[in-house]
Known about the structure:
By secondary structure, the protein is α/β, with parallel strands linked by helices. The protein folds into two domains: 3-137, Cytidine Deaminase, domain 2 (3-Layer(aba) Sandwich); 146-357, Dihydrofolate Reductase, subunit A, CATH 3.40.430.10. It has eleven helices and 16 strands. The chain starts with a helix and ends in a 7-residue tail after the last strand. Strands 10-9-8-7-13-6-14-16-15 form a nine-stranded mixed β-sheet. A five-stranded mixed β-sheet has the order 2-1-3-4-5, sandwiched between helices. The chain has a two-stranded antiparallel ribbon with strand order 11-12. Helix content is 27%, strand content 22%. The relative contact order is 0.12.
Amino acid sequence: xxxxQDERLMARALDEARRGRPSPNPHVGAVVASPxxxxxxxxxxxxxxDAHAEVAAIQAAPRTEGQVLYVTMTPCNHHGRTPPCTDAxxxxxxxxxxxGATDPAxxxxxxxxxxxxxxxxxxxxxxxxxxxxxIADFEKHITTGLPHVTLKxxxxxxxxxxxxxxxxxxITGLEARTEAHRMRDRADAVLVGVGTVLADDPQLNVxxxxxxxxxxxxxxxxxxTPADAKILGQGGATWILHGPGAPAERRAALxxxxxxLLELPAVEGAVALDAALKALGxxxxxxxxxxxxxxxxxxxxxGGFADRVAVFVAPRILGDSRAPSFAxxxxxxxxxxxxxxxxxxxxxxxxxxxxxxxxxxxxxxx
Length: 366
């Protein structure tokens, strides 16, 4: 199937959109092109408070009068941290605007109608699936108040995340581990259960690539995290979510070590996940990367809170049924029909390892 000019230029806008770090805003990219399809300028929303993608592209373009604007999401139509992009688009004199995804929760609806009323031809829903996938994290946060949750793990061919001794260094090779650090760089926060802290003493920072460290979050109802844990000794923010019964002396010790403590309701000795995710969403955590362990993964899957899975599979076989798997619980699913299935599955090699990614169905569809 041939690719139309609009699709080709929207794909270019998508590439540009992925460059930003705009959280809690969405990733948006824009292209200014001539009617014949020559790219004149590109722009993306770099970070919250900076110019939106459309304005960045307009500012970079040698000319805009009579040209075509491609944008991956409907231009905003309200005054927020920046003025309405619809006003800038109209003032630039574009003859045509091509839109990918519709804004899932516009503060002021009517952007497309406003552009058309100004005499601009508007085409919508070009590569809408790809454009909407790019803002899935923003869409969930803006419509539910909860972060978009990705479950990430490295496993052997028989699905084990570590040996029964707890040893997991290293299941995958350097290329896969480098990609895992890119995921951390793109996340607002990375979350683990206290069991992972006790077993692995992880740093949860970004090392193999240039980037910025995410907020480190630990689910730890009883505050068992050691005060000398690596997550507390390297600067940056570490939030420990605990239950109301956590001992006062542990609270004092961890606060002195630099942790920010958030008391939340507990259910059967564990921090309530709905309350935890709500608290993170209220703190503008939009993109949450969960790195285990198996109990946390299973709880998020069972509760319908997980949105995406990213699993690095290594060509190793541990051969131990007692070693921890990707997701485990005392009462597992009994049949294959009950297994969680992924949609829009992608896979790609990273050295000798394979990264498999996919989305979980929307909660009401599960």
